[in-house]
Each structure stands twice: as C-alpha cells, then as structure tokens.
C-alpha cells in the first residue's frame, strides 16, 4: 500500500507546564517547564522520532501558544500543514505536578479550545485517505464538531485501506458523565481495527448502568468497578480485531478474538513521571505495526518507549530515538 504518510494522528494538542519542583506538593510549586502535549500529538512525535513519516491533524488558536506547538512539531519533522488556526479559540494548556512514585496531579484548560473545533472540512483537507495508519483518541469524541469530524476521518481512512487505531485516552474531567464516554466510544468502535487502553479505560469504554465509577479529583487515580475481561470481550465483539491492554510496570497484554491472551513483559525502571508513558507506548507499538513486525515485538518496543519516558521529565520532548532504545534494551535481553 503506497501512501504518503505512515501515520496520521488526530486530536488534542497543548502546551504542557510540568512542575520543576519534583516531589513538592502542588501548592508549593515555584516554577514549571514548558513542553508540548496531547495524546495524539505525543504518539505522532514518538513515532516520528523512531523513523515513521507522520502528520498531525489538530487545531490551534491564533495565539502564541499555537506558535509554540507548531514550531516544536516543525522542528521534529512532523507534517503540520494540515493544522488549521481557529480564530476566537485558544490553544489548549495542561498543568502538571510531579510527586513520584504515585501522585501526579494534572489540570486541563480546555474551555474554548481550538482542537475541539476540528471539522469535517478540516478532515477533507488532511491526508486521512493517504496514510497507512490513522490514530485518534477518546477525548476527540467529547464534543462536536470534533466528534463528527473524527468519525468521518476514521470512516474515510478505513475505506482507503488504512488501519484505524483508537487510544482510549479516558480523561474524566472532559466528560459530563462517564457513561456518556462509553456511549460515544462504543458508537465509534465499528470503525476501529486496534484498541489501546489501560484496565480502567477498558472498563470505562464498556461501563453499563449497573456498574459504577469511583469519583476522584485525580485524572490518574480514577477507579472503575467491573470485570476487565468482560470489558475486553465486549469491545472485541463490537468490531476491533485487536486490543492491547497497557499494564504499567507489568508491560502489556495482547488480546485477539478467539485466541488466548499473550503477556508481553515490561522493563522495570525507577519511576520519575508516569504522565505520557502510555503515549510513548503508542508511538513505539505503531512503529512496529507499520513496519510489519509481529505483535509481540511491536508491543515490546512500545513497552521500552514507555519505560524510558517514565524516567524523564516530560512527554514528546523526551520521546526516545531508536538508537536510545537499542542501547536501553541491551540490559534487558533486547526486544
């Protein structure tokens, strides 16, 4: 399949402000480092650093923050010509605290957000039909016009022969009701070939009226009741051929319809910052997928990327190159 781009990702982008005072309570933070973020952006940059030809479909405001995001992407070699400016709307921002090993408070600023304004017309100007893999995240489905635009893009990409990958990217604060998240996601799964998500994201995707979510203030600590295996079976029954369950320090698990699950071990490291590790995993996994690697090795590469990023301060800005990965995995017996 001859396509201009190996990977097109679609969805949110932002300036990410990460605490420089690692270990300090959020109220005591004195300064922040400015990076870029947003799950589809992070995946796109991570895959680009490994060698894929990538493009990003997001939107930014007609503001300096938008300039900051686009400048970084241009420096990385990501195709940015499909990123529209949305006058009257702001580029998103995220503020993050870092209190390892298990406290990482995060606040999203997405009111009047530019990337929510992505439209079907924007999709038609993008390479949605000229990519090998099209990837999008769950946050895309929270509001229109981005919701409809994303479904349109997934349909167009799949009709053109692309593999459609969905990263669940569940952010409770972006939804008025967690059950609305599940309804929106399930409506999209008929267009999806591959799903990537954590245990709690899998449960959120298939949450029913009889199940519940424990409400917490932390984006990284939300717990959802239910049986993850039941959730996996429900997702695969809706159309996807493959589900990759991210399991943190335990690596990942491959689920295919009609086959036994396969565990892929991770790479034990000392955690510095977990935020962005899942996106790093996505970039590595998609590199393997595009290059025809078997699933085990592709997931193993994703695990390596995630392990490296959890030892670093930020997300995209610290995504590893293939040379860094090759050096890293030597001590673990390779990929």
Features:
335 residues; alpha/beta; UDP-N-acetylmuramoyl-L-alanine:D-glutamate ligase; 8-stranded mixed sheet; 4-stranded mixed sheet; 10 helices
Portion in strands:
15-25%
Distance between the termini: 27 Å
> Helical region count?
10
What is the CATH architecture annotation?
A: 3-Layer(aba) Sandwich
Average pLDDT taken over every residue: 93
Radius of gyration: 18 Å
Q: Specify the helix fraction band.
A: 25-40%
CATH class: Alpha Beta
Q: Look up the CATH topology.
A: UDP-N-acetylmuramoyl-L-alanine:D-glutamate ligase
Principal-axes geometry comes out as globular
Strand arrangement across the biggest beta sheet? 4-1-7-8-9-12-13-14
> Which segments are poorly predicted (pLDDT under 50) over 5 or more consecutive residues?
215-221
Total count of strands: 14
Order of helices and strands: EEEHEHEEHEHEHEHEEHEEEHHH
The class by helix and strand makeup works out as alpha/beta
CATH superfamily heading? Ribokinase
Structurally, the number of domains stands at 1
Largest sheet composition: 8 strands, mixed
């Amino acid at each position: 399949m001859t396509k201009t781009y190996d990977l097109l990702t679609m969805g949110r982008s932002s300036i990410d402000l990460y605490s420089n005072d690692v270990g300090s309570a959020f109220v005591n933070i004195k300064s922040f480092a400015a990076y870029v973020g947003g799950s589809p952006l992070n995946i796109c940059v991570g895959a680009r650093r490994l060698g894929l030809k990538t493009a990003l479909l997001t939107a930014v405001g007609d503001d300096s923050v938008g300039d900051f995001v686009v400048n970084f992407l241009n420096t990385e070699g990501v195709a940015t010509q499909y990123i529209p400016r949305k006058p009257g709307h702001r580029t998103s921002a995220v503020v993050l605290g870092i209190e390892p090993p298990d406290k990482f408070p995060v606040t999203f600023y997405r009111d009047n957000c530019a990337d929510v304004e992505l439209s079907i017309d924007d999709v038609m100007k993008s390479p949605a039909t000229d990519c090998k893999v099209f990837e999008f995240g769950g946050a895309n489905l929270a509001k229109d016009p981005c919701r409809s635009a994303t479904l349109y893009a997934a349909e167009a990409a799949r009709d053109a022969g692309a593999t459609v990958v969905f990263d669940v990217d569940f952010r409770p604060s972006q939804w008025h009701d967690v059950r609305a998240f599940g309804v929106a996601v399930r409506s999209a799964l008929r267009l999806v070939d591959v799903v990537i998500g954590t245990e709690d994201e899998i449960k959120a995707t298939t949450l029913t009226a009889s199940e519940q979510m424990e409400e917490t203030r932390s984006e990284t600590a939300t717990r959802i009741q239910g049986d993850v295996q039941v959730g996996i079976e429900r997702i695969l029954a809706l159309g996807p051929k493959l589900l990759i369950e991210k399991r943190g320090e335990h690596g990942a698990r491959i689920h295919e319809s009609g086959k036994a699950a396969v565990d892929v071990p991770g790479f034990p490291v000392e955690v510095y910052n977990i935020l962005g590790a899942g996106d790093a995993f996505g970039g590595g996994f998609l590199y393997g997928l595009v290059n025809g690697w078997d699933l085990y090795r592709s997931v193993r590469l994703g695990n390596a990327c995630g392990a490296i990023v959890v030892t670093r301060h930020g997300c995209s800005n610290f995504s590893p190159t293939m040379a860094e990965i090759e050096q890293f995995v030597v001590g673990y017996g390779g990929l």
